[in-house]
Amino acid sequence: MGTKTQQTTVADAVETRLPGNLTMHAGLVGAIALMSAPLVLALVMSTQTTTEVYQVTNLGIGSQGLSNYQTALTEYGFANYMLNSLVMSVVIVVGKVTLSLLAALALVYYDFPFQRGVFMFVLLTLLLPVPVRIVPLFQLMADLGWTNTLLALTGPYIASATAVFLFRQHFMSIPSSLVEAARLDGVGPLTFLVKVLIPMSRGMIAGVAVITFIYAWNQFLWPLVAVTDKSSQVVQVGIRYIQGSAQAGLTRWGLIMAGAVLALLPPLLVLIALHRPLLETFAIQQK
Amino acid sequence: MSTQTKPYDSIPQAAVLLLPTAVVLVAFLYYPGLETFRLSLYETLFLGQQTNWVGLGNFAELATSSAYHNSFLITVLFAAIVVVGTLSLSLVISYMLFHVEVGSSTYLVAAIWPYALPPAVAAILLNFLLHPNLGIFTHYLELLTPFTLDWFNSGPQAFGVVAVVAIWKQLGYNIIFLVAALNNVPESLRETARIDGVGHLRLLYKVYIPLVSPTLVFLAVMNTIYSFFSTFPLVDLMTSGGPSDATNFLIFKLYRDAFEFSSLGLASAESVVLFVLVAILMYGQIRLSDEYAQYGV
Fold this sequence. Notes:
The complex is a heterodimer of chains A (287) and B (297). With 287 residues, chain A is mainly α. Chain A contains 16 helices and no strands. The longest helix of chain A has 32 residues. The N terminus of chain A is likely disordered. Chain B is mainly alpha-helical. The two termini of chain B are 18 Å apart.
């Protein structure tokens, strides 16, 4: 015990001797550099030829320029995978937001029996992530004839307990004077949703959309199981193909890195552009 | 919660609004969920051509299978390492962010970006950067430490490498929540905490960690569920469960039993086990947050 307090006081003394903020900034820059190093290195290596890659410490921009990207997009089908991923993610985002807004409208602004029960029925699905139901879900897709289609990739994801929960929370926080005004004017429910609720929930809708887009784009296990036909596959599984096929002779790591960068860019750009609504939505989810 | 005035009372209209969500949830969540329980009582023979009722036979098989025991143990150990590693690192980074008070923007986005990182991409990047012969990280690691990286053949090393990637990928999500929680600490408490001569580490440990403990509990549960499920791409792309089953986690074993060996009944029984684990975790989280709510934290 005695040594322990001594140790901490020494640490305290060292810390207080340095201007606190400088230490903090240095620590942050170091942590961020470590976290981002793999990404920066991947960008560099994606411009190198296989020979340059095999010179381990060669960190110069390679002589390939962007030709690895061109090869990945054309010869390795990444253009097609990216398009499939984009269509799947957009359909899931639009479907999830629409369905959840309608459900939240009913839960908050309609008087009907067993409301709590209906809400619990929606919330309980949180206990059923894909791995817990993957075998019957796969069989169901085969029975419906949906295997290898967009329906299989999107269907299981377009209803969401989390989105319904968030929209319901948000609607409940809207001042009731507004609702009263709507009622006195005799506005119909859909007009009320489009003219009043949606404009007042822009931030929340943006947040749910960003979280959903990133989640959908990054899916790997379900597309791997539900899609066997390469032409309908998404880019995350495309990475699996490129890693497998680029390994003849000397592995073309530059090409694989280019594929990885392509698969990462869309969600990363969406996060950078829309981090504000995402952070606000998460802050509400915690409360 | 204030009770909202309910301007509408048409039950058929409410039903129509709820119908799309209800149909999707019943068809793709509840039905397959219940079907998993039913399938777990059958065994599949001849690649799914024939099914026989075996009652709890699949569960008995799991209970006596040493491969499954191994998978269960390493999954729990892996989750523990990922939870502790992720929480400690993200606490330190979040505290630094909170302390320099940059608000949001550049620093914050630079620290949370791994939230957008696809697990498959994380796996493939480090497959290359930590490659035993070609990896630049490997090169400098072996230059600076007496360590030799040989994770294609060494089970414990492969386990460690997958854990590092899992923690790296999960940092962003944790930092998002911890920065928000630290910023929610009341100003008056922050003032009292600025005692002269007390170092940041002690301040973090003595003052801030107790104050953000509800968020830590929430994140511990979320990180555990993440370790159980979201590490599938890492194992699939980095180690394929090897070497000698050192990374054959429950989710990977389930995938193989179902889609490589077509033992659908056995795989469903494994799904049921995962369902029970998730249910226990969620229940624990709800109970704990109720307790915090009572004490007004």
